[in-house]
């Protein structure tokens, strides 16, 4: 009786096709700092979860809900999501369509990297300007006096104004990051081995 053909051993875990990198080398020191700072925002998500657990306990066990838990968790989550865009730029892990990018030569990819970074820089500058318009309304009354926009809730925290200020800071930083990427993509030497991928 013939033996069944041997099957190739199946590895316990599939190995990644591309080695993971902490940050994109072309993002420079700013990219390195952004990836380090991301740990702080990751802790913010854990704090938001802990606040929700405390709120559930206080509400359903002691029938004494807080007035600050909802706004605090919303603020922490929103700040983390805003920072997430900057984090993805530094790591080169943002969503993109690579239908054309994957089939062109390395030289063409370099051109596309520069063009994409320049287009993203322009978009970020527009969003930074729009953020500044929001921040002006959130920080100053019509008469020009300083006043942070509040939530209007029972706690009435300045979270809306702080979120808009943070968004402006992130958009300016993201613009600088795309400028650094554009310059570094222009300066990056082509790899040896020809123009086409192996």
Automatic annotation (TrEMBL):
<feature type="transmembrane region" description="Helical">
    <location>
        <begin position="165"/>
        <end position="186"/>
    </location>
</feature>
<comment type="function">
    <text>Part of the tripartite ATP-independent periplasmic (TRAP) transport system.</text>
</comment>
<keyword id="KW-0997">Cell inner membrane</keyword>
<dbReference type="Pfam" id="PF04290">
    <property type="entry name" value="DctQ"/>
</dbReference>
<dbReference type="GO" id="GO:0015740">
    <property type="term" value="P:C4-dicarboxylate transport"/>
</dbReference>
<dbReference type="InterPro" id="IPR055348">
    <property type="entry name" value="DctQ"/>
</dbReference>
<feature type="domain" description="Tripartite ATP-independent periplasmic transporters DctQ component">
    <location>
        <begin position="49"/>
        <end position="172"/>
    </location>
</feature>
<feature type="transmembrane region" description="Helical">
    <location>
        <begin position="67"/>
        <end position="90"/>
    </location>
</feature>
<comment type="subunit">
    <text>The complex comprises the extracytoplasmic solute receptor protein and the two transmembrane proteins.</text>
</comment>
<feature type="transmembrane region" description="Helical">
    <location>
        <begin position="37"/>
        <end position="61"/>
    </location>
</feature>
<feature type="transmembrane region" description="Helical">
    <location>
        <begin position="111"/>
        <end position="132"/>
    </location>
</feature>
<protein>
    <recommendedName>
        <fullName>TRAP transporter small permease protein</fullName>
    </recommendedName>
</protein>
<keyword id="KW-1133">Transmembrane helix</keyword>
<keyword id="KW-0472">Membrane</keyword>
<dbReference type="InterPro" id="IPR007387">
    <property type="entry name" value="TRAP_DctQ"/>
</dbReference>
<keyword id="KW-0812">Transmembrane</keyword>
<keyword id="KW-0813">Transport</keyword>
<dbReference type="GO" id="GO:0022857">
    <property type="term" value="F:transmembrane transporter activity"/>
</dbReference>
<keyword id="KW-1003">Cell membrane</keyword>
<dbReference type="GO" id="GO:0005886">
    <property type="term" value="C:plasma membrane"/>
</dbReference>
<comment type="similarity">
    <text>Belongs to the TRAP transporter small permease family.</text>
</comment>
């Amino acid at each position: 009786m013939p033996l069944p053909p041997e099957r190739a051993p199946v590895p316990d875990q599939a190995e990644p096709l591309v080695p993971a990198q902490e940050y994109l080398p072309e993002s420079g020191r700013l990219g390195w700092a952004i990836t380090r700072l991301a740990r702080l925002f990751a802790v913010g998500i854990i704090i938001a979860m802990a606040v929700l657990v405390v709120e559930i306990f206080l509400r359903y066990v002691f029938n004494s809900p807080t007035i600050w838990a909802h706004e605090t968790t919303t603020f922490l989550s929103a700040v983390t999501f805003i920072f997430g865009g900057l984090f993805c730029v530094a790591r080169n892990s943002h969503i993109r369509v690579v239908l054309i990018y994957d089939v062109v030569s390395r030289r063409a990819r370099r051109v596309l990297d520069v063009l994409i970074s320049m287009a993203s820089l322009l978009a970020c500058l527009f969003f930074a300007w729009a953020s500044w318009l929001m921040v002006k309304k959130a920080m100053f009354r019509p008469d020009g006096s300083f006043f942070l926009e509040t939530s209007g809730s029972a706690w009435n925290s300045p979270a809306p104004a702080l979120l808009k200020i943070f968004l402006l800071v992130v958009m300016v930083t993201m613009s600088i990051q795309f400028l650094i990427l554009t310059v570094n993509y222009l300066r990056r030497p082509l790899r040896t081995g020809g123009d086409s991928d192996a």
